[in-house]
Amino acid sequence: MTSMYPTFSKTDPKRTEALRSSLAEAQRDVHAACRQADRAPDEVRIIAVTKTHPPEDAATLVDIGQIDLGENKAQEGTPKAEQLRTWDRTPRWHFLGQLQRNKVRSVVSWADWIHSVDRTRLVDAVDRAAVDREISICLQVNLNSESGRGGVLPGDLEALAEHAAACSNLRVRGVMAVAPLEWESERAFERLADMSRVVRRVVPDASEISAGMTDDFTTAIEYGSTMVRLGSKILGRRHGR
Ligand SMILES: *Cc1c(COP(=O)(O)O)cnc(C)c1O
């Protein structure tokens, strides 16, 4: 497979400064949202979503201390993560997108976390692929069945959690959702907090709530998010899509 990023050179200083300042602003804003919600700032981790941005940006983020990085497509994340293996410090990669079973093996070779696990056959495929390494997973919930996004329906979440909890190579860490476009974000994140309680009845320490993107992270933090997934807020406009 040829890489979609054949060259991997040092990022120019201007871009480094831009990333440094947008990352610092994101951290300030996340901390402010935590204060507003009466929560400790270290309860919320930032995942910088590098999709559509070149590996140079990902490497620069790692250099300036942003270790948690996210990608949403196997065909983009796999070569990017591969290129970053040559970097001094390796990121902690989070896979966030729809995952087909035939891509599981390649994603498991670089991702430490998979946030988008939403069906038993996918649970089994990740568990099988994760030999000699433990993969942290979040169970993605489809909050509005009308809208047909990825995710397990709320009524099937408990059974999925039980199934995943029995897999020896997986660690069930919590829940994930993308707020439905047609809902107020408050409603979405409140509902996700309920879903988190469902999972914690099965796996008591699965306390992570992966929720909140550039446009709604403040609300997500108000409703208990522990991981905000910030793309354009840190990296700017996406290339292509
Ligand atoms: C792209 C993406 C994000 C980041 O989106 P922004 O609005 O740019 O912050 C977060 N989560 C998932 C699942 C994504 O695909």
Walkthrough of the structure:
This protein is of the alpha/beta class and 241 residues long. The protein has a single domain (13-235), classed as Alanine racemase (TIM Barrel, Alpha-Beta Barrel). 40% of the residues lie in helices and 16% in strands. It has helices at 13-36, 55-63, 74-84, 104-108, 120-129, 157-165, 185-202, 217-222, 232-235; strands at residues 45-49, 68-71, 92-95, 113-117, 135-140, 170-176, 208-210, 227-230. The chain has an 8-stranded parallel beta sheet. The chain starts with 12 loop residues before the first helix and ends in a 6-residue tail after the last helix. Bound molecules: pyridoxal-5'-phosphate. Pyridoxal-5'-phosphate (PLP) binds at residues 49, 51, 72, 96-97, 178, 213-215, 229-233.
Ranges where pLDDT stays below 50 over 5 or more residues in a row are none
CATH superfamily: Alanine racemase
- What share of residues are in beta strands? 15-25%
Principal-axes geometry comes out as globular
Bound molecules: pyridoxal-5'-phosphate
Number of domains as seen in the coordinates: 1
Binned, the helix content reads 25-40%
Task: Report the order of strands and helices.
Answer: HEHEHEHEHEHEHEHEH
Largest sheet: 8 strands, parallel
Instruction: Give the overall pLDDT as a whole number.
Output: 94
* CATH architecture label name: Alpha-Beta Barrel
Biggest sheet strand order reads 7-6-5-4-3-2-1-8
How many helices? The count is: 9
- CATH topology name, in short, is TIM Barrel
How many strands in all? 8
From the helix content, strand content and strand pairing, which structural class follows? Answer: alpha/beta
